[in-house]
Design brief:
Elements lengths: L21 E5 L4 H12 L3 E6 L2 H9 L7 E5 L5 H13 L5 E4 L17 H17 L9 E5 L22 H25 L5 E5 L14 H14 L3 H13 L8 E3 L10 E3 L8 H15 L12
Parallel strand pairs: 1-2, 1-4, 2-3, 4-5, 5-6, 6-7
Antiparallel strand pairs: 7-8
Helix pairs in contact: 1-7, 3-4, 4-5, 4-8, 5-8
Bound molecules: NADP nicotinamide-adenine-dinucleotide phosphate.
NADP nicotinamide-adenine-dinucleotide phosphate binds next to helix 1.
């Protein structure tokens, strides 16, 4: 898809009325997810904060406007059993309209998930793959969407199919970037499959540029020091970093199958449809990742999705 800046600058003030919509946001206890929770609830949405630490989530919720429209639920994406429990409860409670796959960890030493997957790949990609697959049929309403949060660094990634657990070679930073490529491959493959099935669900990717969140404080001290220095120069306030994701989640003209970025200038964020960069464009790679993800999670996303109601 070619680059196309919006006709005018879109801000959080442009979020359409969200009354009657339920938005599920992973990793909503801090940073971008928490900010988006507040903005969407303020515009009338019921928001489910899907968090790994419920006490932290409740403290964060209490400080938000329209807290009565916000619910905190436990979801630990690194653990596929927790993903299944969370999804089953959401389905039992009637589903939702928008799923924002936002949670992420990065730059952390190698460790395995309860199911034996490398934890950054498990949290950022496999957990969201399984969650989306389990919830797809429960995303309803006039304009259902899945928005997956990636990073502008994704073109630097690869998918090491021969060493997904990082047993033979592992770099914390590279492993993170690889998961952000996986997010792009997944979001675009999901869009292709949804379109082929005639589904009303849109699948979009969005990234915040560099936003000053707790994210940059993860990892070894040398990397944190570097990230903080870079963030001082090119980092954005959380509110600005959230704008492309909010646009992808709510703007009527946000196109499905697109990567939404922050726009051409550092100073002003303008949600922009970015040209997808290689290897994000590689449909063969995306198909292979999808198959491997089905095998590793045991989740086969439910397609086709019934027409919206
Ligand atoms: N900040 C940036 O410059 C930047 C740039 C590019 C992309 N991103 C992406 O933006 C997204 C949000 O990050 P952020 O910047 O807002 O950082 P953040 O403040 O650290 O937020 C990440 C959230 O993910 C949650 N999380 C981590 N592991 C989880 C798990 N196993 N289950 C459920 N939730 C989990 C964290 O929970 P806790 O609160 O319990 O820690 C936290 O709330 C990430 O996907 C990140 O890759 C950020």
């Amino acid at each position: 898809m070619p680059e196309s800046p919006p006709r005018r600058r879109w801000t959080a003030a442009d979020i359409p009325d969200q009354s009657g919509r339920t938005v599920l946001i992973t990793g909503a206890s801090s940073g971008l997810g928490l900010h988006m929770t507040g903005e969407l609830a303020r515009r009338g949405a019921r928001v489910v904060m899907a968090v790994r630490d419920v006490a932290k989530g409740e403290r964060a919720r209490a400080a938000l406007p329209a807290a009565d429209r916000i619910e905190v639920r436990h979801l630990d994406l690194v653990d596929l059993d927790s993903v299944r429990d969370f999804a089953a409860r959401i389905v039992a409670d009637g589903g939702g309209h928008v799923l924002v796959n936002n949670a992420g960890i990065g730059n952390l030493p190698r460790r395995l998930s309860p199911q034996g997957h490398e934890r950054q790949f498990a949290t950022n990609h496999l957990g969201h793959f399984a969650l989306t697959g389990l919830l797809l049929d429960a995303l309803t309403g006039p304009d259902p969407r899945v928005v997956t949060v990636t990073s502008g660094l994704y073109p630097l990634g690869t998918i090491p199919f021969d060493d997904l657990t990082g047993e033979r070679r592992f770099s914390p930073g590279r492993a993170y970037i690889n998961t952000k490529l996986a997010n792009v491959l997944f979001g675009l493959e999901l869009d292709r499959r949804l379109r082929a099935a005639g589904s009303p669900v849109r699948s979009l990717l969005a990234h915040p540029g560099m936003a000053r969140t707790a994210f940059i404080d993860q990892g070894p001290p040398a990397l944190v020091g570097l990230a903080r220095s870079v963030a001082r120069v090119i980092g954005r306030p959380v509110a600005d970093g959230a704008v492309p994701i909010l646009y992808a989640a709510t703007a009527p003209d946000a196109p499905t199958g697109a990567v939404i970025g922050t726009g051409p200038t550092l100073r002003k964020v303008a949600p922009t449809v970015e040209a997808v960069r290689r290897p994000g464009t590689d449909a063969g790679l995306a198909t292979r990742l999808w198959q491997v993800s089905e095998e590793l999670t045991g989740v086969t996303p439910l397609l086709p999705v019934r027409p919206s109601r």
